[in-house]
Structures are given as structure tokens and as C-alpha cells.
Amino acid sequence: MIRASKLMSAGALTLAIVLGGAAHGHEPGGAGDEAFGSWQGPVTPPDPGAAPKGEVVVYRDATLIDGAGTPAQPGMSVVVDGAEIVAVAPSDSPAANPTGARVVDASSLYVLPGLIDTHVHLATPPNARKAEGQMRRQLYSGITAVRDMADDLRSVAELQRRSRLGEIPAPDIYFAALMAGSSFFDDPRTIAVSQGDIPGKVPWMQEITDETDMPLAVAMARGTYATAIKIYANLPGHLVKKITAEAHRQNIAVWAHTAVFPATPEEVIDADVDVTSHACPIGYQVMAEMPGSYQDPTPVDVGALGDGDNPVITALFDKMKAKDIILDATVRVYAEGDARYAKTKTGRPPRCSADLAYRLTSQAYRRGVLISSGTDGETDWEAAYPALHEELELLSDKVGMPPLQVIRSATQIAAMTIGREAEMGVVEPGKLANLVFVSKDPTQDISALREVAFTVKRGVIYQRAAYTPITEAEGASQ
């Protein structure tokens, strides 16, 4: 398990502080409670975003693909009580046949853990209608959680709340607060996600310098309810290390770009971040001169990498493996970039080609680095399925990962990426009832994940046949 799995989430820490008020002389019903209105609900309120405890459902006789890389097991049943998996057993065993349970016939289906997209952007710029359409498509396509990689967190937090409470059909959201160097904050995206305030001066998107009060900056990021801090761009290696050390001291994970410019990939890895995003920029490690900022469009020098597996890059991947640092490879975004540039020939050329991203991701996988399932983009609004399915198909077809390991990248490893492997990512007792049922075998062809029969999120069933596609109005701003 990576370091992030040992961290209490920022939200949980904040909640612990709030609930700890009684230890400082504030008792429920005492002076000051009028500020909270007259609600005197239970200490553990009902969960409106999950199936109720005591509602037992048996998904009978499916072929189990557990998410941990275990070969498929036919004739298995998954028993769910409310939002929790309570048994996974052969269909003819007593454990799979509890008295009084509702039975769902899954005998023609394959069951997997709910999928997780580990790199999305839901609010750059914020557009709740568009985001809700995309998330509805994600959920009905088998995606039960996403990792939002820095947006306008005022909007993302509201989307997170609405999803978690079941007000909209959507995956659960885990998001990052961003940190970057001063020179990054003329980027128009930072202006779009900080409207009403000054880019770089808001808690969800902070400018970091040598003069920054780092404990305060990290505490402000945690106060956004973020799962992690994202280190983005235009920071030297010593500040990447300083941010990471303070974040870990305050019990919050760090997600970083593989190259932070001018910080090199090796400096990012040596800082002990928990997850790195994008396979391509690790190639900068072999170049004679590292670009000095994110705005420098200098591409990775393919010639400097040579043929085969470059030994410098191999050493970095070995270090990532030893440190349990996950690679959020995002190969799809490079394929998308190639296609866009080939079509328009406008703007700066991509930093590297899709073929180079595939090559580096393959090398990382073969060296034992854990690869997660991030997309950093979306399919057109008219598409039946979201970008995650394209990412997984590329990991299989172009990177060369076996289908079982591709599935693991979108389930067990993806759960590790957000520090939630204790709750999700594998079909086993004690985990959340986050499941996807498909009608074809994805261990033979990963594109079978497009054959969704239904999704289960926190015990609630979402039938694919009931999916309402994204409307033109919802997709108009894409």
C-alpha cells in the first residue's frame, strides 16, 4: 500500500476537529447550538446516497473478476447489505444464500469492482450542467469514483456533495488543491477557476515561493476538503520536496506532475510524492537541459532516449517501484493531442507523441510500477461511453498490459491512487458495494467493458437501459 493509504483524508481530519468541539467545552444542546437550528438528529445520520442497512441483495451466479488480478471465477455470488459487500462465495454455498435476501440473477454476467478514472477535470471553467451530464454517463458506464485533478473547487465541492448524497447520478469525487510557482498563474485556466479572486491567492490554487508559510499553505489546502495537494508547475526541486514533506506531516497526500519544470522527474520522485501524472515528461530526465517552466514548449528529445529501454529511465522507474509511487499515465491524452495537431496544425506541437507515451508506460509497467487509469480528457458529448474506456483499451492494445492488469489499473490500483483501497477497488467483504456488471468477458477483450448491464454504487443499482444520454444543451460547451 502506498503512503496515501495510511493518511486520514483532509475531510476526515476536518470532521474530527469539528466533532471534537465537545472536548473543548461545547456539548450538544448547549450554548451556541442555536446557530445549527433545531435539528437533533442521530449521531450517525442515515446515508441518503446509499442503500439502507438491512436491505440484503444477492447478485447470484456471476463470473467474478475481483480487481486484484486473480483469474476470473465462474459461479460466484456477491452478497450486499446496504452499501457494503458482506460475502463473496460460490453460489451453492450457505454464505451465498442468506435467508430473506432479494436475488438478482447475474448468471450471464461478469462482475467487477466499480471503475475509477484517476484523472478528470470537472470545473475548468466551472459548468455544473456539463459536469453533471458527463458524470451521469460515467456512472451508467460503470465508473463509481473519479479523481479530480484541480479545478474550481467551489464548484467541485458542490458536485461532490450532490453526488455523495444521491441528488444526482454520478461517481464519488476525490479532488486536489493545486500548488505551483508564481510564473504559472498567468495561465488562463487559473483565471477561469479563480474568478472573483486573484489566481494563486486562493486556498484551492496557491502560489508557492521560498517565502511561503508552508504549514499555513498546506492547512489552507486541507481546508478545501481536498483529498490531496497537486503540485503542478514552475517549482524547483527543493520546493517540491518542502511541500511534500509538510503535506505528509499534516496527513494529506501529494499528487504531482512527473516533471514540474524546472524540477526534474528525478527530483519529483526523490521528494516522495504519492502519485505522478503523465508518462511522457519522464523522458525529460535524459535531456541535456530541462525546460525552465511549464510554458516552455520544448518537446521530449526522442533521440536522447535511444532505442529500447533507456537505462536512466529504467533507474527512475525502479525508484518509483521501491517507493510505491503510482504512475497515472494518461496515454489517451497524448493520442488525443496527436490527432488534434494532425487535424489543425495550430498551436504548439505536443510535448511528445502517443507512441512515446505508450513506450514509456510499457517500460514502467514492465519494471513493476503501478499504473492507474487516468484520462485527463473526455470523449465528445455524443459518445455512448466516456474516455476511461478508451484509456483502458490503449493500455491493453498499445501499451501491452494484459486485460486483467488493465482492469486492476482501473480498480485496485486506482483505489490506491485516491487512498481508498480499504473501501473500494476489490470485490471482497468489507468493501463498498461498488460494482459493475458486463455481458461479455473483459479478460479476453478489454473493450467488453463497454457492454455494461448495470452499475451498483454504494448498494444502489443503476441500470444501463435507464441511462439518459448527455443532451446537446449539456454538451454544448464542450
Share in helix = 25-40%
* Mean pLDDT across all amino acids: 92
CATH class of the domain at 115-425: Alpha Beta
Strand content: 15-25%
Gyration radius over CA: 22 Å
| Spans where pLDDT lies below 50 across 5 or more residues | 1-6, 8-33
CATH 4th-level superfamily of the domain at 115-425: Metal-dependent hydrolases
In this structure, how is the largest beta sheet organized?
10 strands, mixed
How would you characterize this protein structure?
The chain is of the alpha/beta class and 478 residues long. It has a domain at 115-425: Metal-dependent hydrolases (TIM Barrel, Alpha-Beta Barrel), CATH 3.20.20.140. It has 15 helices and 18 strands. Strands 6, 7, 8, 9, 10, 11, 12, 13, 14 and 15 form a 10-stranded mixed sheet that branches. The longest helix is centred in the C-terminal third of the chain and has 14 residues, at 331-344. The radius of gyration is 22 Å and the shape is globular. Mean pLDDT is 92; it is low at 1-6 and 8-33.
Helix/strand layout:
Layout: H1 10-19, E1 56-64, E2 73-81, E3 84-90, E4 102-105, E5 110-113, E6 115-120, H2 128-140, E7 143-148, H3 153-164, E8 172-180, H4 188-192, E9 201-202, E10 205-207, H5 214-222, E11 228-231, H6 237-249, E12 253-257, H7 265-270, E13 275-277, H8 302-305, H9 311-323, E14 326-328, H10 331-344, H11 354-366, E15 371-372, H12 387-399, H13 403-409, H14 412-417, E16 435-438, E17 452-457, E18 460-463, H15 472-475
Parallel strand pairs: 1-4, 1-5, 6-7, 7-8, 8-10, 8-11, 11-12, 12-13, 13-14, 14-15
Antiparallel strand pairs: 1-2, 2-3, 5-16, 9-10, 16-17, 17-18
Helix pairs in contact: 5-6, 10-11, 11-12, 12-13
